[in-house]
Specification:
The protein has 215 residues and is mainly alpha-helical. It is built from eight helices and two strands. It has helices spanning 10-29, 36-51, 66-73, 77-92, 100-118, 127-155, 160-169, 171-191; strands at residues 53-56, 59-62.
Length: 215
């Protein structure tokens, strides 16, 4: 899923960097209330998962774990994914520094959107919550593939066939990521339910009873 150096046009690189910077600004504002450790753990999981490449057809694919990252962090997924991609670029030359903004945006935005689309489904131990977690994993990969394909297509129309192959090759990854996200939700609901507090509806202000005067 990483786009390498020298592939994208300067215009696409600049646009991706600007959008990633906006996402990072939003995400850094959300790194509070004890979420920094969770973000660090998920960033490490994203880093390790993206290093394991599995041959598939003419190329290879790898896990992203973006679904669970976005599901638990929301906008804070941007700095978590950015840190992992930065380390991969510096240590292993995966992707690159000039394309870091585009890679961050394409991999972080879909998980964030899934977080807000399905967060209301995730607060109970029901089939709906597991379906929501599955969709977070599945659609995060699908969205990242679509955005990566769009970045390639905006650079050169000759990349459009390659973009189609990229999307088709990641369909198995979408299913696997969805299952992983669903199983992790079940596990976290049992051992660390406080991590899922974001999914619980907050009590409306009208529900808070005001103190009454006693005669």
């Amino acid at each position: 899923m990483h786009i390498s150096e020298g592939v994208l046009s300067p215009e696409v690189l600049a646009c991706g960097a600007a959008l990633a910077a906006c996402g990072l600004a939003m995400g850094l504002r959300g790194l509070k209330d004890g979420r920094l450790m969770t973000a660090g753990l998920l960033s490490a999981a994203f880093f390790v998962g993206s290093l394991v490449h599995v041959p598939l057809g003419p190329g290879n694919v790898h896990l992203l774990l973006g679904g669970i990252t976005g599901m638990l962090l929301g906008w804070a997924a941007f700095p978590a994914i950015f840190a992992a991609l930065l380390l991969q670029a510096v240590l292993f030359q995966f992707g690159g520094l000039t394309v870091l903004g585009v890679n961050t945006f394409t991999m972080a935005l879909p998980p964030v959107l899934c977080h807000y689309a399905f967060r209301s489904w995730l607060g109970s131990n029901t089939f709906r919550s597991r379906l929501g977690a599955f969709l977070c994993g599945f659609l995060s990969v699908a969205g990242s593939c679509v955005l990566t394909a769009a970045a390639l297509a905006c650079t050169d129309e000759g990349f459009i066939p390659s973009a189609g192959i990229l999307l088709a090759a990641h369909v198995p990854v979408m299913v696997i990521e969805g299952l992983i996200s669903a199983f992790l939700l079940i596990f976290l609901a049992k051992v660390r339910p406080e991590l899922l507090d974001f999914a619980k509806p907050k009590a409306p202000l009208s529900a808070v009873s005001a103190p009454t005067d006693r005669a």
